[in-house]
């Protein structure tokens, strides 16, 4: 499984780049191929590109195209949100991220910058993206203008926000801290945050805190007159040359930028002479204001100097230019290797990189979000397209789901029913579904009809089924669809939008039958709760399972859980937890738990256990303090169908959870049943999981 880290900041101008560069340097020493991804970037001019992506790709020589390294520009996100397309935003971000994940061993994901329109929504987006990608986070805050309590409080609130949504925070970094306060900041963070969260404090560094002459040139849209090759000079400060030269020279400081009208030859030449004099500090450059240029004789003199600095010309006046330079926000760009190297050195010096690298390598996400779960399902289905038959071909919901499935290129589909009626229904719905992209079969007119009926007769003649009866049964779409699966003419079947559960699964029980070693067919629902995906079983098939049947349902559900990427922690539910309860019902659950532990000792299982103790860590700790399942269950086995069916529907309706299923377990080939109240989304998801089952999970 590919790993990743998410870098988030609490505010603009936090100096996030220093952490990005430092982390990338660490990762390249630990992984063969490292990728870089930004969910949202600032808008950029056509033909240009985001400067930070360009810096990361260029400096570290990443095998990555610019267009693949981000999902949206800021204006694109705002436009989507104005259209209430939040789901599409998250879905596209996941899609772009997963495309990179497939190519790299580790990915550095960098959050938004809190700049420009839409900044107010960025915090929630960062938390949401990190959660759905299932990756841990580094949080950064700037110490500029904050007291110790404000800085520590800011980082703790950020930590708490991520933790509340189930996102693990590996490191918090206080950046731009006054050097004398570094130790106090670290002590404050360590006192406030849990011990497992690493902390770092990076002091202010003038090299990183000031713009280069190139950045000043770009901001002022200046013309470079001289010294183009020295534009990466760092501007350590700036001063206006408006006084006599003899007085101005005393104001020069190291790496100072000289701002003066273009006709002040004395200041220009004096500053250049000071730059090469051992008695005065070096200057970073000169900005000539007012659109005035030096006279030809002065230009000739400058050209003859052995040592030069960038000299820029701007049209604006001195006062305006000085104010604009004072507001320039320094950035790191690909050509400025000094800033890049300084950033990496500062990060390595002030952050425990050894401990951080260890945490990154050993990190394991708890659970999976519904969005990522659905994305992974679709991806797996598309990886080996299977042929699924839908017996209820004329139902409107089936047709709408068929359109979605064909558009997603997830499966090959066969619809059963009257071809004329189905095609007319497609036209009535005006849904843009090309009927030639699907197979439509009327069972009684199929060239396989007699073969199927004969096969059914051979399989069921010991039950007094004759050929005439078999032919009658084969006209039923459920029997015909199931026989397609049995004969290998389809890989799986999904039905039940119109028919009852019994009508759907009876043919499968009669001749597809159960797998070797499995005595009972059961079902599970994938319950996609707001922050995690859990498994509920059995909520659709077995009314009153025995202890032995309950144990088998649990073991089958654990296998399903593993196959779909969810670590099984099994809660055998009852009205009592542990040894406290007595009675036939709780004893049955207790016995089932004992059978599971004997058959599959490697499984984490707890029972009997109440639902609150299974999901709430505080309740679980109080009732079953030594349990590996209490408070963190992922697979819930209900004692009977009445409890299971009502509970899944209650959770679904009251929490807004998406329930995918039921998915039947234990059959030799996949046949799945829909609820007659199913939605188009239910059908889509059930077909997808059926296709994955058909891949041989």
UniProtKB/TrEMBL annotation:
Gene Ontology molecular function: any one: phosphate acetyltransferase activity
Reactions performed catalytically: acetyl-CoA + phosphate = acetyl phosphate + CoA
Subcellular location: Cytoplasm
Top-level EC class: transferase
Primary role: Involved in acetate metabolism.
Recorded family membership: In the C-terminal section; belongs to the phosphate acetyltransferase and butyryltransferase family. In the N-terminal section; belongs to the CobB/CobQ family.
Keywords: Acyltransferase, Cytoplasm, Transferase
Quaternary assembly: Homohexamer.
NCBIfam families (UniProt xref): PRK05632.1, PRK09653.1, pta
Keyword Transferase: yes
Xref: InterPro entries: DRTGG, P-Actrans_bac, P-loop_NTPase, P_AcTrfase, P_AcTrfase_dom1, P_AcTrfase_dom2, Phos_Acetyltrans/Butyryltrans, PTA_PTB
Domain DRTGG: 215-326
Native species: Maribacter cobaltidurans
Domain notes for this protein: The N-terminal region seems to be important for proper quaternary structure. The C-terminal region contains the substrate-binding site.
Annotated EC: 2.3.1.8
Regions that span the bilayer: none
Phosphate acetyl/butaryl transferase domain location: 372-691
Cited Pfam families: AAA_26 (PF13500), DRTGG (PF07085), PTA_PTB (PF01515)
Protein known as: Phosphate acetyltransferase
Pathway(s) where this gene product acts: Metabolic intermediate biosynthesis; acetyl-CoA biosynthesis; acetyl-CoA from acetate: step 2/2
